[in-house]
Amino acid sequence: MFQGKKLVCFDLDGTLIDSVGIWNQVDAALIQELANIEVDLSQIQQQRDLQLKNFKHLPDPYLEYCAYLKALYGFAPNKEEVKNRRYSISRHFLDDIVELKPQADLLIQALKQQQISLALTTTTSLFNVQRYQDNNRNINSKISFDEDFALILTRENVQNIKPHPEVYLNVLQAFNLRPEECLIIEDSLVGVEAANHAGIEVVGIYDQHSAHEIDLIKAKANYYVENFAELLSSFNNNIH
Q1: 94, 157, 179, 201: most buried, per Cβ within 10 A?
Q2: Whether 1 contacts 183, CB under 8 Å
C-alpha cells in the first residue's frame, strides 16, 4: 500500500487521535447544562453525523448543528451562544482527555525517516489543532503538528467538508503530486468517500465510533487495518 507513495495524509479525529467519543461527551454536557436532559452518547453521535452531513454545503455546518440542538432540546440561547458554550465546554476535554492513538507516533516517525511527506487533513478547526499542540501533553509529548506535518489543512481551508474531495484535491495541488503518489488514512465513511472522490488510495482504520459504518468503510477503502501497529508492520515489511 505504501509502494511509490510520496505523501501520506492523516485525518485527525478518530484517526490520529481518540477524540470522536469526546465530542459525544461535550454535546452530552451541553445538553445537560442547557436543557437538563440526559441523552445516550451513541444517539448524540448519530444525530451529529446526520446533521453535519445535511449541513455540509452551508458556510458553517457546526453553527447550524448548534441551531439544530437548540430547536431539538429547547435551548434558550441563540445558536451563536450555543456554539460558543459548546467550545467552552470542550476545552477541558481537548486539553486533558484526548489521547493519540497507540503507535500513531511510531508510524509518523517511520514515514519521515523514509523522506515521505506528511499532511494533516481534517475538518476540525485550526483552533482545536493548535489547542492540542499547545496544551495537550498526551499528544504534544509524542508528536508535533508543526514539525511533523509539511502541510496542515483544517476546516478553515475548505469551503466543502468531507465527503467532498476538496481537502484532498488541495493537497495534490499543494505538493504537485498525482493521485497515485498519495495515500490517505481515514477512520470514517465520509473520509473514505472523500478520498474515493479525489481518486486517491485510502486506508480505512478502525475506530469504535465508526463501527456502525464498518462494512461500508471496508467496501469503499482500498485497504483496511485494525490499528496503527498493523499499519506500521505493513510499512516496515514494505521497505525491507
Answers
A1: 94
A2: yes
The Cα 7–Cα 118 span in angstroms is 6
Q: Convert the pLDDT of each residue in 141-155 to its tens digit.
A: 999 999 999 999 999
CA distance 104 to 190: 21
Q: What pTM does this model have?
A: 0.84
Closest CA to 128 of 230, 9, 26: 26
DSSP assignment letter at 141 = T
- The CA distance from 163 to 76, in Å, is 32
Secondary structure letter of residue 13 according to DSSP: B
Size of the chain, expressed as the number of residues it contains: 240
- E-strand spans in the chain? 7-10, 17-18, 99-100, 117-121, 151-153, 182-186, 201-205, 223-225
Residues 6+ positions from 141 with CB-CB distance below 8 Å: none
Q: Measured at the alpha carbon of residue 21, what is the angle toward residues 218 and 77, in degrees to the nearest 5? A: 125
Note whether 56 and 160 are within 8 A (CB). yes
Residue 240: pLDDT band with limits 50, 70, 90: low
Give the contacts of 197 (CB within 8 A, at least 6 positions apart).
163, 164, 165, 168
Per-residue pLDDT tens over the stretch 65-83: 999 999 999 999 999 999 9
**Rounded-to-integer distance, Cα 24 and Cα 28, Å:** 6
C-alpha cell at 194: 472523500
How many CB atoms lie under 10 A from the CB of residue 92? 13
